[in-house]
Amino acid sequence: MKNFFFLGIAIIFEIIATSALKKSEEFTKLIPSIITILGYCGAFYFLSFAIRTIPIGIAYAIWSGVGIVLITIIGALFFKQIPDLPAIIGLALIIIGVIVINLFSKTTGH
């Protein structure tokens, strides 16, 4: 269960890094650029702990899937990047996939 905590921390770092990446304006803004680099380092650092017991494919699917959904919400709220209906349907399928993996897959290690 501790490794899912690490996976959650990795997701938070990835969301912070990706949000800062948008603000870095192609790494021309110093502070957002530093946050981006440190955020991705933190994301991979904590992901490395998570994959000690969570299979790498499952961990990556959860990490990227949850990250995609959350960064889309941040994009809509803070950058006015509103997804259209096909994007929303795709995001719903990603959410369903993460739920199916967590509830039904025996490979997640719960």
Automatic annotation (TrEMBL):
Source organism superkingdom: Bacteria
Keyword RNA-binding among record annotations: no
GO annotations of cellular component type: plasma membrane
TM annotation in the entry: 30-51, 58-79, 85-104
Alphabetical list of InterPro entries matching this protein: EmrE-like, Small_drug/metabolite_transptr, Small_multidrug_res
An individual GO BP term: xenobiotic detoxification by transmembrane export across the plasma membrane
UniProt membrane topology term: Multi-pass membrane protein
Keywords: Cell membrane, Membrane, Transmembrane, Transmembrane helix, Transport
Matching Pfam families: Multi_Drug_Res
GO molecular-function term, one example from the UniProt record: choline transmembrane transporter activity
Localization: Cell membrane
PANTHER family registered for this protein in UniProt: MULTIDRUG TRANSPORTER EMRE, SMR FAMILY PROTON-DEPENDENT DRUG EFFLUX TRANSPORTER SUGE
Family that this chain belongs to: Belongs to the drug/metabolite transporter (DMT) superfamily. Small multidrug resistance (SMR) (TC 2.A.7.1) family.
Protein name listed in UniProt: Multidrug transporter
Protein species of origin: Flavobacterium seoulense
Organism phylogeny: Bacteria, Pseudomonadati, Bacteroidota, Flavobacteriia, Flavobacteriales
